[in-house]
């Protein structure tokens, strides 16, 4: 189910993004509207927005489809999930979308003040050359391989993921966004402690906090004209919704406190309502949930299924994996739990399931976790399953079942 | 890191001391109270679990007019007509009122809760979390220290409370009798997380002596690199190279090293430079099977 396409003439965007290379406007007969900061998906024609992290866009099939929800299962100390939420909101500011931020723990204004600064004059980073280099450039590098020079131009293991277009932007994490840039974007805030609690006698499956949030969202969408069915008199824009730490105790929910929560279906009912709201409007939502506190795995599965895209972040900080030399280049593991199939039969899952992330200053990179070649002497003697970290490799090799069956000539 | 935490929990901080039946955290809590008193701060203790005498037991000689004990021990649930402090008074308004009543307006106040577990048995965890968050944000108290018995609650509850905390100290019994192991997790304002493990013991006057950093008991490789000996030593023939020999070796032209022009030509020729075109004629026995298939391996 996608956001219903609007029947309108394709309007050229009034202001071009600084990255368009030509002034060529494709004369398309598609009924999709053109909004700055979006592009149609090459797979199924959905309108996509960037999450702010180019590697994550690649994993999700090019970007986040308008009208869908991305669920991020928080890492233990909520550092990286919060970072991705900030990237998402910063991307909205740069693309001139409208923002809606809801939180119960921190004031949304504090979150908005921490947005990373965009690198506006930086060109997208080119990947190591897969195409042959020009002869004038190779003089220095040919000497680097004396004996194996025939392999000079073959790519090294292509570990970083990126799509080739300049759809997303890059951000410098060490600086915060200039207040002028941030104030240019329209932000709607929902801070639960400051929200008046209405006492209603009607019994609903949703907690008061969630129903207040849903009502606030509905009101903003309707008032600002994000409904798909709204009139076409003014130019359309996307609403980016960031919901921080739903399901935590500060939202009055005991999902993360008790093994058998009393408000068991509250968050799931909220997500159902949220998705219905998003499908009929031009908005995108990113929801973070502290899944490490939720003990009921079946409930976590329902929550995942009610969101369209779902990823989980597992940070190495504080776990025994921190000292594992296998993981020394990364900050944590990223698990893709779910990728949606919108208006098509099957979805595009990422090729590689072992993904790890690293937060660098100018990029949040998500890479394939690959083992370096093991050059120690014991490699040929010991069966695969006994190597340190062999668990990640054994499933790929398929030889983990019967351990000692190795050829010995 | 324990001494730094003792010297002053940062303003707006929430420190949780997690203990279990095996090792009590109350002594550490008393050390923290003592340290706060020595820093000329006002300390408000809400005691649910132990009586005032027992809590003041260790701190002799310290100025006690800055230590305000709120008696929640005798009647915490309000069964009598005039309870001193009940569990249901654990919310922001009542606590602020309590603190302002007995405290100097200019002194920094530390609120100590002994223990949070008691409150969690009678009040919902989300309400407790809300109050703790409000205490963190509001200006009534400078810092809050709470004792939590981790084995009394479900994992989610303990996790939710610790998720809010700026620092968590988990005490566990140590190897020797009077020692304990403290696992400390501290979150700084910038979002950085520091973790440490220390062995400490508490002396008679409630000062904390940190013995050492606990050694990691994880599996350690015995360091096979150190045991490798140099294979070129102790031989009857010479396997090493002198400098001149090394230079000569590097100058030697290898047989298939081409000139740069030829290399680039070969590299950029692309596909189709050499293909093997083979058409099997009638006499050839072109067997599609892999001859290795009958090996029984």
Number of domains of chain B: 1
Q: What are the low-pLDDT stretches of chain B, counting only 5+ consecutive residues below 50?
A: 216-225
Provide mean pLDDT of chain B, rounded.
81
Indicate the structural class of chain B.
alpha/beta
| Percent of residues in helices of chain B | 25-40%
Major sheet characteristics of chain A: 9 strands, mixed
- Average of the residue pLDDT scores of chain A: 77
How many strand elements of chain B? Answer: 9
Oligomer: heterodimer
Strand order, main sheet of chain A: write it out.
8-5-9-10-4-11-12-13-14
Helix/strand order of chain B, N-terminal first: HEHEHEHEHHEHEEEEHHH
Task: Name the CATH homologous superfamily of chain B.
Answer: P-loop containing nucleotide triphosphate hydrolases
Tally of contiguous helical segments of chain A? 9
Low-confidence stretches of chain A: 1-20, 122-143, 158-165, 381-405
User: Count the helices of chain B. How many?
Assistant: 10
Specify Rg of chain B, calculated over alpha carbons.
35 Å
Task: Please bin the fraction of helical residues of chain A.
Answer: 10-25%
The class by helix and strand makeup of chain A works out as alpha/beta
Total strands of chain A: the figure is: 14
Question: How is this structure best described in words?
Answer:
The complex is a heterodimer of chains A (409) and B (297). Chain A has helices spanning 54-59, 80-94, 108-113, 138-142, 179-184, 208-224, 266-279, 297-306, 390-397, and strands at residues 38-40, 47-49, 64-65, 69-73, 98-103, 116-118, 171-176, 187-191, 239-243, 283-289, 309-315, 332-338, 355-359, 364-368. By secondary structure, chain A is an alpha/beta fold. The longest helix of chain A is centred in the middle third of the chain and has 17 residues, at 208-224. Chain A starts with 37 loop residues before the first strand and ends in a 12-residue tail after the last helix. Mean pLDDT of chain A is 77; it is low at 1-20, 122-143, 158-165 and 381-405. Chain B has helices spanning 2-7, 26-38, 52-56, 92-102, 116-122, 125-137, 155-164, 224-227, 243-251, 260-267; strands spanning 13-19, 42-47, 67-71, 109-114, 143-149, 167-173, 180-187, 193-202, 208-213. The radius of gyration of chain B is 35 Å and the shape is elongated. Mean pLDDT of chain B is 81; it is low at 216-225. Chains A and B meet through α4 of A and α6, α7 and α10 of B.
């Amino acid at each position: 189910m996608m956001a219903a396409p609007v029947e309108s003439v394709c309007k050229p965007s009034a202001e071009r993004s600084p990255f368009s290379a030509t002034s060529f406007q494709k004369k398309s007969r598609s009924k999709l509207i053109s909004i700055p900061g979006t592009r149609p998906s090459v797979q199924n024609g959905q309108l996509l927005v960037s999450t702010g992290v180019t590697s994550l866009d690649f994993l999700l099939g090019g970007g986040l489809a308008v009208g869908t929800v991305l669920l991020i299962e928080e890492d233990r100390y909520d550092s990286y999930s919060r970072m991705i939420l900030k990237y998402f909101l910063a991307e909205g500011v740069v693309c001139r979308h409208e923002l809606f931020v809801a939180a119960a723990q921190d004031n949304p204004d504090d979150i908005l003040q921490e947005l990373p600064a965009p690198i506006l004059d930086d060109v997208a980073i080119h990947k190591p050359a897969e195409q042959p280099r020009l002869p004038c450039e190779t003089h220095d590098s040919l000497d680097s391989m004396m004996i194996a020079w025939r392999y000079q131009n073959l790519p090294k293991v292509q570990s970083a993921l990126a799509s080739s277009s300049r759809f997303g932007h890059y951000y410098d994490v060490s600086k915060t966004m200039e207040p002028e840039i941030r104030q240019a974007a329209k932000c709607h805030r929902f801070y639960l402690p400051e929200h008046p609690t209405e006492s209603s006698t009607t019994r609903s499956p949703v907690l008061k906090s969630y129903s207040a949030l849903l009502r606030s969202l509905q009101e903003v969408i309707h008032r600002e004209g994000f409904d798909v069915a709204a009139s076409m008199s003014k130019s359309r824009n996307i609403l980016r919704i960031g919901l921080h730490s739903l399901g935590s105790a500060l939202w009055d929910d005991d999902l993360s406190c008790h093994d058998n929560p009393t408000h068991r279906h509250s968050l799931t009912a909220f997500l159902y309502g949220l998705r219905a709201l998003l499908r009929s409007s031009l908005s995108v939502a990113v929801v973070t949930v502290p899944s490490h506190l939720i003990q009921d795995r079946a409930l976590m599965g329902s929550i995942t299924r009610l969101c369209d895209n779902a990823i989980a972040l597992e940070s190495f900080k504080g776990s025994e994996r921190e000292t594992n030399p296998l993981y020394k280049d990364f900050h944590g593991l990223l698990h893709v739990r779910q990728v949606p199939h919108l208006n098509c039969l099957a979805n595009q899952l990422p090729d590689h399931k072992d993904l790890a992330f690293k937060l660098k200053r100018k990029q949040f990179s998500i890479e394939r976790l690959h083992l370096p070649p093991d050059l120690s002497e014991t490699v040929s003697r010991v069966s695969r399953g006994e190597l340190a970290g062999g668990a990640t490799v054994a499933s790929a090799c398929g030889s983990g079942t019967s351990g000692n069956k190795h050829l010995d000539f | 890191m324990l001494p730094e935490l003792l010297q002053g929990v940062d303003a707006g901080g929430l420190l949780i001391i997690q203990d279990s039946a095996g090792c009590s955290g109350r002594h550490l809590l008393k050390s923290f109270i003592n340290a706060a008193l020595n820093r000329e701060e006002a300390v408000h203790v809400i005691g649910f679990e132990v009586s005032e005498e027992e809590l003041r037991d260790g701190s002799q000689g310290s100025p006690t007019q800055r230590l305000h004990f709120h008696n929640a021990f005798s009647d915490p649930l309000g069964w009598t007509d005039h309870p001193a402090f009940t569990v249901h008074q654990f919310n922001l308004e009542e606590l602020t009122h309590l603190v302002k009543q007995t405290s100097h307006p200019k002194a920094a106040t530390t609120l100590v809760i002994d223990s949070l577990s008691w409150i969690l048995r009678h009040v919902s965890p989300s309400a407790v979390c809300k109050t703790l968050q409000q205490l963190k944000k509001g200006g009534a108290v400078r810092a809050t220290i709470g004792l939590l018995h981790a084995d009394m609650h479900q994992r989610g509850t303990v996790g939710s409370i610790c998720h809010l905390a700026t620092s968590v100290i988990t005490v566990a019994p140590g190897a020797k009798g009077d020692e304990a192991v403290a696992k400390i997790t501290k979150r700084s304002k910038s979002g950085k997380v520091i973790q440490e493990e220390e062995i400490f013991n508490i002396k008679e006057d409630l000062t904390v002596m940190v013995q050492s950093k606990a050694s990691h008991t994880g599996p350690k490789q015995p360091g096979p690199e150190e045991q490798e000996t140099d294979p070129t030593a102790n031989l009857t023939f010479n396997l090493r190279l002198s400098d001149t020999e090394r230079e000569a070796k590097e100058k030697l032209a290898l047989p298939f090293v081409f000139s740069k022009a030829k290399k680039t030509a070969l590299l950029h020729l692309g596909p189709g430079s050499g293909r093997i075109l083979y058409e099997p004629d009638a006499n050839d026995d072109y067997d599609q099977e892999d001859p290795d298939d009958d090996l029984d391996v």
